[in-house]
Design a protein that fits this description.
- There is one protein chain.
- The chain is of the alpha+beta class.
- About 25% of the residues lie in helices and about 30% in strands.
- The protein is built from 6 helices and 18 strands.
- Strands 1, 5, 6, 7, 8, 11, 14, 15 and 18 form a 9-stranded mixed sheet that branches. The chain has a 3-stranded antiparallel sheet with strand order 2-3-4, with no helix packed on it.
- Helix 3 runs antiparallel to helix 4.
- It starts with a strand and ends in a 9-residue tail after the last strand.
């Protein structure tokens, strides 16, 4: 399922660049003005995260209770509202799981992919790996038992403090890594035990390399200065891994064998993408004409 979410407009966004209804989004400015795109769901600037969740995520999370794993991914340019959306989805998913099964048991781990390296945001000493045998699985991650949605909020906040961030032109606190919250859920339904995993992914922002530049002021005039080489290299790595994920999703859509091994990100997501797993992709969009090309 693919859902598009247009975040609320801010002063730096320029004029409104999109108009939306429940299933279509139309470009309202620029050289492609008037072009319409259709998705499973489109959420405009007035739609709250709870409604985004109901339209795109509830079915994926419901599958956990009968042993069906799933993945929820937020994708989009820097400063398009991905982290805000995913953190809301994380809590709402936890609320749904506890509301729908009294005896459910939940564990959480929080991982980061940065520069093709997989690290644990809850315990930097952990050695996290994706192994193939006997089945594809993530091993070595520090897991925390989750007793309530409030407890999950604390776990996420703890992990976010350890996440890689940096300034770009689009966002002074841009996420420079992909972050994945994994919720492992155990249930008993009429004597049958089920186990499944939900992976909620806040992808690093997609952007053209020149967007990693930041503005400076000199002698009262604005000048463009290159961001540090590290920031540029981060952007190249981010876009490479996003391309690998896009390739895997296209292969899945075409019912071909996915190339999970092409990046650390796709390897991490393999256990919750393959087989009977469900997927929701939330495409986050900035609303204004300033970033229309992005």
């Amino acid at each position: 399922l693919v859902c598009v979410r247009v975040r609320p407009q801010g002063g730096a966004d320029g004029e409104l660049g999109w108009t939306v209804d429940d299933e279509t989004i139309t470009q309202a400015a620029g050289k492609h003005e008037g072009e319409r795109y259709t998705f499973d769901s489109v959420c405009g600037t007035q739609v709250h995260t709870e409604q985004v969740y109901e339209r795109s995520c509830r079915e994926v999370v419901g599958g956990l209770l009968v042993g069906r794993s799933g993945t929820i991914v937020a994708y989009g340019q820097t400063a398009s509202g991905k982290t805000h959306t995913t953190q809301g989805v994380m809590r709402l998913a936890c609320e749904q799981v506890f509301d729908e099964n009294d005896g459910v048991r939940v564990w959480a781990s929080y991982l980061e992919v940065y520069d093709e390296k997989l690290t644990d945001l809850l315990d930097g000493r952990s050695s996290v790996q994706v192994k193939d045998k006997p089945v594809v699985r993530v091993t070595g991650a520090h897991e925390v038992r989750v007793a309530s949605p409030n407890a999950l909020d604390a776990i996420v906040s703890r992990g976010e403090r350890n996440r890689k961030r940096g300034a770009t032109r689009l966002n002074a606190k841009s996420s420079r890594s992909h972050a994945a919250l994994r919720l492992r859920v155990e249930t008993d339904v009429r004597g049958v035990r089920f186990e499944a995993t939900l992976c909620v992914v806040d992808l690093a922002g997609s952007e053209r390399p020149q967007k990693t530049r930041k503005r400076d002021s000199q002698n009262g005039q604005r000048a463009w200065v290159s961001a540090p080489e590290t920031r540029f290299n981060e952007g190249v790595g981010i876009n490479k891994s996003l391309s690998a994920l896009s390739h895997v999703l296209r292969q899945m859509g075409d019912r071909l064998k996915p190339s999970f091994r092409n990046s650390t990100l796709t390897r991490l997501l393999q256990p919750t993408l393959q087989g009977r797993a469900k997927l929701a992709l939330i495409c986050c969009v900035a609303p204004g004409t300033i970033q229309l090309e992005e």
